[in-house]
Each structure stands twice: as structure tokens, then as C-alpha cells.
UniProtKB/TrEMBL annotation:
Keywords: Aminotransferase, Pyridoxal phosphate, Transferase
Gene Ontology MF term list: transaminase activity
Top-level lineage group: Bacteria
Name the record gives this protein: Aminotransferase
Keyword flag Transferase: yes
Cofactor(s) it depends on: pyridoxal 5'-phosphate
Family: Belongs to the class-III pyridoxal-phosphate-dependent aminotransferase family.
InterPro entries per UniProt: Aminotrans_3, Aminotrans_3_PPA_site, PyrdxlP-dep_Trfase, PyrdxlP-dep_Trfase_major, PyrdxlP-dep_Trfase_small
Transferase among keywords: yes
Length: 461
């Protein structure tokens, strides 16, 4: 038994994995037959499988390994903190040094008066806490009917009961139950799929009007919050129309609806700034949620950052007697994770990585745009170091055609043969490399992607 657990034989590990591991987003009919890629080690922007094949990690783990793999400073920090204080409960007003320092560091970098931080162990946990807070907030203000949550199609907010209910990727809706009575979906803001002949300006106006119309339809007295990723990541790197986010914020303010900016992907440098809400899109939301790049994926951690305005409103003179926020987790503010997050921030800022992304990001986008000459490419979009190549097999319509659905998986298979991992979803090839990629690495990524798209085109002829 012991020997089996320590086997390094990739074939055997794959068998054990197929037999016992229920991966996220598994098809139960094929989970026991399809071979996983068994990963063994990683360094910089490269990851190797257990058979020794080396790939460029085109997706930064999953939008998260900002500073690259194998950073000695992070590993040493982790070990030192574990040796000093590996864990203690955050309940009962127990503080630990790195968590307090990290909360302060996040407050200093977050926009406006977002100064109070609750910790979670994932992005889902951070978003879940934000929604729970929104409900708690209006209950404390004696407005319990303000409960409804507005999100958008193509969004992704997580995999807890509530956050999964907030996911607007229709193909993900499966045999689960969802909190449909609480969550309402606005139409997608994907300009590529807008009706033929509609100008971008009209499209943007329509999307902003959609939000106001939904608030009015539900009744502002029933709406708690609007939750939006600044750029919808997993849904296909959907960059919102110019001024869309500030105008949505204005509408939220008008109807006393909390604006929750889900920065699980966009924070910590992916767009060249620690937080993108203010620095890239000019908005100061009421709440920011983050995770992933917070620790560069070295250890799980999420955070929710709340505006002082909200905290004051429910803790001041007019507040209910005991605004008792019974939310949090055993591992909230875990000292080892917090120490890693602090060191990660130090690297992102101290090593000039944010500035580097402001140079490499536009280069990455410009090089990817050149793929538009390929017939299979329908759209290329993105910002900073997040991008999506949308493939189109049949003619472009309001929705992707059936034949488009599996095309990105083909591109990914061709890319893996050539040494690049990307993230396929239906017709979308998504890229979010570690932030340390150089222009030379980008050339290599784009060149492999081009060859893989051409190979896919040839398959389909
Ligand atoms: N929010 C956004 C925007 C995400 O992209 C994700 C994950 O991809 C989540 C929330 C959920 O994060 P986690 O998987 O860490 O729970």
C-alpha cells in the first residue's frame, strides 16, 4: 500500500487518478476512461509532465501563477512561517502577524475607502462572503427585501452553491440545483456576438440600459447587489465596452445597489496593476473580491475587501444592536498563506513585474491580433496578459454553432503536441501566461498557437 502511494510511474498514477479523483468539471461517464495529464514539476513559465514532456504554461496554472513557478523566496517564506506559527484559529479575535499585515497591505492598495478585509480560502469563498455581506448589510439597515443578486451571462464567480448559481456560462448549467430565485442574469456584454449592424456605441448603451431595466423590473427595494468581473475571464475574456463599468456603477449608486467587483482574475498584475477596478476601469466599487494571484497560486487564499462606508453604516449609531457577522472559515487568514501573499506582493512590486506587464501586455495583444488572418479565427480579444482567440467553424451567428463547440479542445491538443498548454472552452482558446513572460516567450506562444490553429483548420477540411 505504502509503496503504491509513492509510485512515480506516470501510467500507474494516471490509473489511480482515474479510479479515485473526481476532478472539477468531470463527465462521470468518461472520468474512469480518459487519461489525465500527470504533471510532475514546474519552473519559471514551464511545466513538465511525469513523462518528462515540457510545456509553456499558457494559462499560468489557471490565471494565477503570476510570478512563475519555483520562486525560492516564496518557498522559503512558506517554510519559515510554518516553522514559526503554522496555524491558529482566526475565531475569537485571535490575530496573527502576516494576516494583519496582509489586510493592511490590501487596504493600502485597494481603491477609495475599501479598508476592511475578510479572508477566505478561494475565490468562491471570497465572492460568497461578499454576497452574504450584502444581505447582512441590508438586513442590518432593516431592508430585508433587498436580497436579489444581478450578474451577467458569460460570468464565472465560483463553485459553492451560491456562486455556482451566479455562473452565466450556459453550458455549465447541469443537473445541479441552483438558487434561481435569488440570481438574475443580464445579457452578455460580448460585443463580438452583438447583432449585425449594431454600432459599438449602441451596444454599450443597450448593455447599460439592461442593468437599469432589470433593477426597475425587480424593484430597487428588492435588489442587493450587482456582481461583475471587470473583464469576464472564464466566459471568454470579454472586455466590456468603453465606460460600461463606470456607468453601471452610477446606476448602482442611483438605486442603492451594492457594486461588487470580482477581481479574482484581474487583480495582482494581470492587467499591470494590483487592482484593476480603479486603475484600469476608473471605478471604486463597494466591495472587491480577489484570490488566485494573491498568492500566485502557491497556496489557497481569497479575500473580500469592504468599503468603510458600508461598515460604518451598519456599526454606527443607527445600527441594529448587535451586527454580528457570522461569516468566516477555519482557515481565514491562514498565517502561511498570508505570509506567502505578502511576499508575493513584494515580488510583484519590487521586481517591477507590474511595469513589465504594462509593456508585455500590449505586445501580447498585438501579436495575437495577427492571427486574424486565419479563416478559423473569428475574434481575438483581451487586455494585459489575458486573451482569448475565438474560433468560428461555421458562419458567425448570435450563438456559436454546434460544430464550434469542441474546436478549442482540438487546438489545445495540437498545442500540447507542440509544447504549449492553453485553456480550451467550447470555441474559445484562452491564454493567461505567468506575468514574467518575456516578448521572446510571447513570440513562441503565438507561433505555437498559429501552428495549432492551422492544424485544426486542416483537420476540419
Ligand atoms: N471569480 C472569478 C472571476 C473566477 O475566475 C473564479 C475562478 O476561476 C472564481 C471567482 C472562483 O475562484 P475559486 O476557483 O478559487 O473558488
Amino acid at each position: 500500500m505504502f509503496a503504491k502511494h509513492h509510485s512515480l510511474d506516470p501510467v500507474e498514477i494516471a490509473q489511480v487518478d482515474k479510479r479515485h479523483v473526481l476532478h472539477p468539471w468531470s463527465d462521470l461517464k468518461t472520468m474512469h476512461t480518459e487519461d489525465p495529464l500527470v504533471l510532475a514539476e514546474a519552473k519559471g513559465i514551464h511545466i513538465s509532465d511525469a513523462e518528462g514532456n515540457r510545456y509553456i504554461d499558457g494559462i499560468g496554472g489557471m490565471w494565477c501563477v503570476q510570478v512563475g513557478y519555483g520562486r525560492e523566496e516564496l518557498i522559503v517564506t512558506m517554510a519559515e512561517q510554518a516553522r514559526r506559527l503554522c496555524y491558529y484559529t482566526p475565531f475569537g479575535a485571535m490575530a496573527n502577524v502576516p494576516a494583519a499585515q496582509l489586510a493592511q497591505a490590501l487596504a493600502e492598495r485597494a481603491p477609495g475607502d475599501l479598508n476592511t478585509v475578510s479572508f477566505a480560502t478561494s475565490g468562491s469563498g471570497a465572492v460568497d462572503s461578499a454576497i452574504r455581506f450584502a444581505h447582512f448589510y441590508f438586513n442590518c439597515l432593516d431592508q430585508p427585501s433587498k436580497r436579489q443578486v444581478i450578474v451577467r451571462m458569460d460570468s464565472y464567480h465560483g463553485s459553492t452553491y451560491l456562486t455556482a448559481s451566479m455562473n452565466g456560462k450556459r453550458r455549465d448549467w447541469s443537473q445541479f440545483n441552483y438558487a434561481r430565485e435569488l440570481v438574475h442574469f443580464l445579457p452578455s456584454v460580448n460585443a463580438f456576438r452583438r447583432p449585425k449592424g449594431q454600432s459599438l456605441e449602441d451596444f454599450a448603451n443597450e448593455k447599460v440600459a439592461d442593468l437599469e431595466a432589470m433593477i426597475l423590473e425587480l424593484g430597487p427595494e428588492n435588489v442587493a447587489c450587482f456582481v461583475a468581473e471587470p473583464i469576464q475571464a472564464s466566459g471568454g475574456v470579454i472586455v466590456p465596452p468603453e465606460m460600461y463599468l463606470p456607468r453601471c456603477l452610477e446606476i448602482c449608486r442611483k438605486y442603492d445597489v451594492l457594486y461588487i467587483s470580482d477581481e479574482v482574475v484581474t487583480a495582482f498584475g494581470r492587467l499591470g496593476h494590483i487592482f484593476a477596478s480603479k486603475d484600469v476601469f476608473g471605478i471604486t466599487p463597494d466591495i472587491i473580491t480577489c484570490a488566485k494571484g494573491l498568492t500566485s497560486g502557491y497556496i489557497p487564499m481569497g479575500a473580500t475587501i469592504y468599503s468603510d462606508r458600508l461598515i460604518k453604516a451598519i456599526s454606527g449609531e443607527n445600527a441594529v444592536d448587535h451586527p454580528y457577522f457570522t461569516n468566516g472559515f477555519t482557515y481565514s487568514g491562514h498565517p502561511v498563506a498570508a505570509a506567502v501573499a505578502l511576499k508575493n506582493l513584494e515580488i510583484l512590486e519590487g521586481d517591477g513585474i507590474l511595469e513589465q506587464v504594462r509593456d508585455t501586455g500590449p505586445y501580447f495583444q498585438a501579436e495575437l491580433q495577427k492571427l486574424r488572418d486565419l479563416p478559423i479565427v473569428g475574434d481575438v480579444r483581451g487586455m494585459g496578459l489575458m486573451a482569448c482567440v475565438e474560433c468560428v467553424v461555421r458562419k458567425i451567428g448570435a450563438e456559436p454553432g454546434e460544430a464550434d463547440m469542441a474546436v478549442a479542445a482540438r487546438v489545445d491538443a495540437h498545442a500540447q503536441e507542440r509544447g504549449l498548454i492553453l485553456r480550451p472552452f467550447e470555441s474559445l482558446c484562452i491564454l493567461s501566461p505567468p506575468l514574467i513572460v518575456t516578448t521572446k516567450d510571447i513570440d513562441r506562444i503565438v507561433s505555437i498557437l498559429r501552428d495549432s490553429l492551422i492544424a485544426t483548420q486542416n483537420d476540419l477540411i
